[in-house]
Write a structure and sequence with these properties.
The structure holds two protein chains of two kinds. Chain A is α/β, with parallel strands linked by helices. Chain A is built from eleven helices and twelve strands. Chain B has a single domain, classed as MetI-like fold. The chains are: A alpha/beta, B mainly alpha.
Chain lengths: ~350, ~300
């Protein structure tokens, strides 16, 4: 954040887009899709800032708009409203060529490691491709870079001769990581990167992400539905529900003392490795029903249809996005610094 | 976590850089033929037919237009291996000479169809929106005509002759190709690897050529070999109608057309050209099928 304050005009930045701070800021970001049934408000007014070098966890159920948000952060989707800022640059206002140059710094790794690799290209061809696109170096230097990247993610470079279908899921995800590493990105959106992997190799892949962050100072947006994953890797967490942030704050604060009833319910849905009679039964809050359709989100607070603490005000008024504790934001009428409202009954 | 646990496979060491290259193309081609007997047999058949057609001026026992009116519609004998036709011409020699025209005609039609159909289908499928609408409606319009009527009309407009006739057959085939590749493109353009390449800043041309085309072309390869067979028959139809090869030139189709006139007396007049068309068509199809599996890395070893 400090770096951004120091230079407001892009022209101050002698190094051009590269070398600028890699912080990412979403400002009232809205992404709507027009469908036959109406407008899907996948992301509906989300603001947050990811500071350089940090890991920002975005957690949400399926249908919360987290994947849409991730694709927008990586520049794959256009914002319908609001904007995304890469350091000093506003994505929507950049001329095409400039955006193309910035793009390499802002990457995404997808949930499905297999689908992200062209089945007709060898692993080496796939890993070399980004450098080919950027016209960096010649063929042999690209091959060298690709092999180094494969080694860096813990794969034998011989694997480059194979095709994606000959690799395991974990290997393929490492290949995707290696491919992204070749362009030395500053920011990577990790969209459910371990969800498709066996539990046994998740830890290793998550550790790889952590190592790479330490080594290259990469900033992450870590998108997941899995609280244990997100609390393990993130510095801060944002909780997304129906395209809006419900709560955002430091990981410890959000997981230990959540402010929003929805976060509380999410946390209590996490299975505990304890026999039933030893679990804290009072913490158990069940979320009733399914996430409502983003075609017609509930009025007022979107959470109210499933919230145990909902009152009439929740249907009438959209809760304000406010800082209930220092650095800990919440969108709930009744939450205060002491915690979320209790159930109404 | 220490890096050892991350890299169980790292112990295998760095390979020699030169071993990275796949074998050269001719070598891979030979390996393919060795592995896939269907491919080698069909290719052998096609090479034999093509060789006989191209070398017919030197190999054929008779001239294709040399008439022997004392010996018409004769059964096979030592001088005329496949007998003679209604003007006493040697059927075997005409078959060899006709092959060149027939193969040229079939290839021309399919190449025209590919050159017109593939870019149209790719662009329609990839661009979507009004571009797709316009191209698709034009395709639908062409597909709504009976194929042979359309070919006859186009040939009539362009002028009679084998090249014009087959060009119009190619035009008639083009919408089929366009539709096929459009449908595949619609699927492939949604694939995650296309998004991944886009995220690295790949241009539209690159996305199309490196990612969409190789993954969308498979059914087109098979369809092309089927169309080669259909084109052989279309050539026969158009020549039969008098729009294709003009006498004294000869093609397999025109031989069938001529034999057809005497079907009730000597049906065997149609056997030789009919059989050679069938063999060629089957060989094209088999080759296409083998080619398809050879080009698909996920099918290697299942061949």
């Amino acid at each position: 954040m400090n770096a951004r304050v120091s230079s407001h005009s892009p022209t101050d930045n002698a190094t051009g887009p590269r070398g600028a701070n890699a912080g990412v800021r979403a400002e009232d970001l809205t992404i709507h899709f027009a469908t036959k049934a109406g407008t899907v408000k996948a992301v509906d007014g989300v603001s947050f800032e990811i500071e350089p070098g940090e890991t920002f966890g975005i957690i949400g159920e399926s249908g919360s708009g987290k994947t849409t948000l991730g694709r927008a952060l990586a520049g794959l989707l256009k914002a319908s409203g609001g904007d995304i800022h890469y350091g000093e640059h506003t994505l929507g206002k950049l001329p095409r060529a400039e955006r193309q140059r910035l793009r390499r710094d802002y990457q995404i790794i997808f949930q499905d490691p297999h689908a992200a690799l062209n089945p007709r290209m060898t692993i080496l061809q796939s890993v070399m491709e980004p450098l080919e696109i950027l016209k960096e170096g010649d063929k042999s230097s690209r091959q060298r870079a690709a092999r180094e990247a494969l080694e860096r993610v813990g794969l034998a470079p011989e694997i480059g001769r194979r095709y994606p279908h000959e690799l395991s899921g974990g290997q393929k995800q490492r290949v995707n990581i290696a491919r992204t590493l070749t362009v030395r990105p500053k920011f990577i959106v990790c969209d459910e990167v371990v969800a498709a992997l066996d539990v046994s190799i998740r830890g290793a892949v998550l550790n790889l992400f952590a190592e790479l962050q330490e080594e290259f100072g990469i900033t992450y947006a870590f998108i997941t539905h899995d609280i244990s994953v997100v609390s393990h890797v993130s510095d801060r967490i944002g909780v997304l529900y129906l395209g809006r942030l419900m709560e955002m704050g430091p990981t410890g604060a959000v997981t230990d003392a959540p402010l929003h009833p929805y976060t509380q319910a999410l946390l209590s849905a996490e299975p505990l490795p304890l026999p039933g009679d030893q679990r804290d039964q009072r913490r158990r809050i069940r979320l009733e029903g399914e996430i409502p359709s983003p075609l017609a989100p509930p009025s007022g607070c979107r959470c109210r249809t499933r919230c145990p603490a909902a009152q009439t005000r929740c249907a009438e008024q959209i809760p304000e996005w406010r800082e209930a504790r220092p650095g800990h934001w919440v969108a709930c009428h009744f939450a205060d610094a002491d915690g979320p409202p209790g159930p109404v009954r | 976590m220490s890096s050892e646990t991350l890299s169980p496979s790292r112990a295998s060491g760095t390979p020699d850089a030169d071993q990275w290259h796949e074998p050269a193309l001719p070598m891979r081609f030979l390996l393919w033929l060795k592995r896939d007997p269907r491919a080698s047999i069909s290719l052998l058949v096609l090479v034999l037919i093509l060789g006989a057609a191209l070398l017919s001026p030197w190999l054929a026992p008779h001239s294709p237009s040399e008439q022997n009116l004392d010996l018409i519609l004769a059964p096979p004998d030592a001088a005329h291996l496949l007998g003679t036709d209604d003007l006493g011409r040697d059927v075997f020699s005409r078959l060899m000479y006709g092959g060149a025209n027939s193969l040229y005609a079939a290839l021309l039609a399919v190449i025209v169809a590919l050159v017109i159909g593939m870019p149209l289908g790719l662009i329609a499928g990839f661009a979507g929106g009004w571009v797709d609408q316009v191209i698709s409606r034009v395709i639908d319009t062409f597909l709504s005509f009976p194929a042979i009527i359309l070919a006859v009309a186009v040939t009539g407009a362009m002028g009679i002759g084998l090249t014009n006739a087959m060009f119009s057959v190619g035009l008639v085939f083009a919408p089929q190709i366009a539709r096929l590749i459009r449908a595949r493109t619609l699927v492939v353009r949604q694939e995650l690897y296309v998004d991944a390449a886009r995220c690295f800043g790949a241009s539209k041309a690159r996305l199309l050529i490196r990612h969409v085309l190789p993954n969308a072309i498979q059914p087109v390869i098979v369809q092309s070999t089927l169309l080669l067979a259909v084109a052989l028959l279309a050539e026969a139809s158009l020549s039969f109608l008098g729009l294709g090869v003009q006498p004294p030139d000869v093609s397999w189709g025109s031989m069938i057309a001529r034999g057809y006139l005497y079907m009730s007396i000597v049906p065997e007049q149609m056997y030789a050209p009919g059989l050679i068309i069938m063999v060629t068509a089957v060989a094209f199809n088999a080759l296409g099928e083998s080619l398809r599996s050879a080009l698909d890395p996920t099918m290697k070893g299942h061949g």
